[in-house]
Write a structure and sequence with these properties.
This protein is 52% helix and 7% strand. With 151 residues, the protein is mainly alpha-helical.
C-alpha cells in the first residue's frame, strides 16, 4: 500500500502552512488572550477554499476527501488551534448545507459559506447534557408537513 502524498495533497498542506504562518501565527496568542474572534482571518481562509474544503461543488465547495481536508486543518491547528476549531465546525455545517439543503437554500447560502463571506456553526448543548449528543433531549418530530421542536 502506498502512503505517499500526491502532488495535490502536498500543495494543500503547503498552502495551509504558509497561510497559517502569515495570517494566524502573528496574532493567535493575542486573539486568545483578548477573546477576539478573527473574522477577517477566517474570510481570508475562505478565499483559499478553506471554508468549503469538503462541501460539494454544487455549493461552491472543493469537495475534497476528508484526508485532504484533515491535512489542511492539521497545518492550521499547529499554529492556531482556536481559530482552526471554528473553521472545522464551519466546514461541517457548510458540508451539511451543501449535501442536504434544498436547491433554493443551497443557491442562497452555499457560495457565501464556502467562500467564508458568511459563517455557519451549530449548537450542540443542553442543560444536563453539555455537548454529549447521546444525552440531548430536544427532538424534531414531523407532524404532517411541519416539524415540532420539543426539548
Amino acid at each position: 500500500m502506498d502512503f505517499e502524498l500526491n502532488d495535490d495533497q502536498r500543495a494543500f498542506a503547503e498552502s495551509a502552512r504558509a497561510f497559517a504562518q502569515a495570517e494566524l501565527a502573528p496574532h493567535a496568542a493575542h486573539w486568545d488572550r483578548e477573546s477576539i474572534f478573527p473574522r477577517e482571518a477566517i474570510a481570508k481562509a475562505g478565499e483559499l477554499g478553506f471554508c468549503g474544503l469538503y462541501a460539494p461543488e454544487n455549493a461552491g465547495g472543493l469537495q475534497l476527501p476528508r484526508l485532504d481536508a484533515t491535512m489542511v486543518f492539521e497545518e492550521l491547528a499547529a499554529v492556531d488551534p482556536s481559530t482552526t476549531a471554528f473553521i472545522t465546525i464551519h466546514n461541517m455545517a457548510t458540508w451539511m448545507l451543501g449535501t442536504w439543503a434544498t436547491d433554493a437554500v443551497r443557491a442562497e447560502w452555499g457560495e457565501s459559506l464556502t467562500s467564508g463571506r458568511k459563517l455557519a456553526s451549530y449548537c450542540l448543548t443542553e442543560p444536563g447534557a453539555g455537548s454529549d449528543a447521546g444525552s440531548l433531549k430536544t427532538r424534531a418530530e414531523l407532524a404532517g408537513h411541519e416539524y415540532i421542536i420539543n426539548g
